[in-house]
Design a protein that fits this description.
With 172 residues, the protein is of the alpha+beta class. It is 34% helix and 26% strand. It has 6 helices and 7 strands. It has a 7-stranded mixed beta sheet with strand order 1-2-3-4-5-7-6, sandwiched between helices. Strand 4 (75-83), helix 4 and strand 5 (111-117) form a beta-alpha-beta unit. The protein is globular, with a radius of gyration of 15 Å. The mean pLDDT is 93.
Length: 172
């Protein structure tokens, strides 16, 4: 498995990955999430042009997973990480998150943050196993509050959600 920056030719494939990755939500009674449209091509391209879109690719260089992110209040916020179900359970999401963490650390950012569903096994419980911790309401930065407000406007709060953060280990 290799990770590389997304290229323009990847963007339609990223939308396909997102659609496929959303399908399992239907089995949890979250059809609205399963049917949600992926990020628009111009949105994906904005992340790509900013150098904050990476793909995990198969041996034929076809993307099978992707991650997009942006700095928010001194941390790198994971906007989306998706793995095609055909490539699931191979460590691709973990590898993309590690790549993002390396990038964030190099940029002088203090942590990774994300928002996710609390009761979806491959969401909050998965991120907790990777060292993320749920943030209490009082710990939310202004940027995370804006992100959560936007998610609420989109109707994502129909299911329990949480902001999570993974700080870098202390080095002496």
């Amino acid at each position: 498995m290799r990770i590389r920056p997304a290229i323009p030719d990847d963007l339609l494939v990223l939308q396909d990955i997102e659609r496929a990755a959303g399908a399992p939500f239907r089995d949890l009674g979250m059809a609205a999430i399963a049917d949600d449209e992926p990020p628009a091509l111009d949105v994906l391209d904005r992340f790509r042009r900013a150098g904050r879109a990476w793909v995990a690719r198969d041996a034929d260089d076809h993307p099978v997973a992707y991650l997009i992110c942006e700095p928010v209040d001194g941390a790198l916020h994971i906007e989306q990480v998706s793995v095609h179900p055909d490539a699931a359970r191979r460590g691709l999401g973990r590898a993309l998150l590690a790549h993002a963490a390396d990038h964030a650390h190099e940029q002088g950012l203090t942590a990774l943050t994300l928002t996710t569903f609390t009761e979806v096994p491959w969401n909050a419980p998965y991120y907790a196993r990777l060292g993320f911790r749920a943030l209490a309401e009082a710990e939310l930065t202004a940027g995370l509050r804006r992100i959560r407000a936007h998610e609420a406007e989109l109707g994502l709060d129909r299911w329990p959600r949480v902001c999570m953060r993974r700080d870098w280990p202390e080095t002496g």
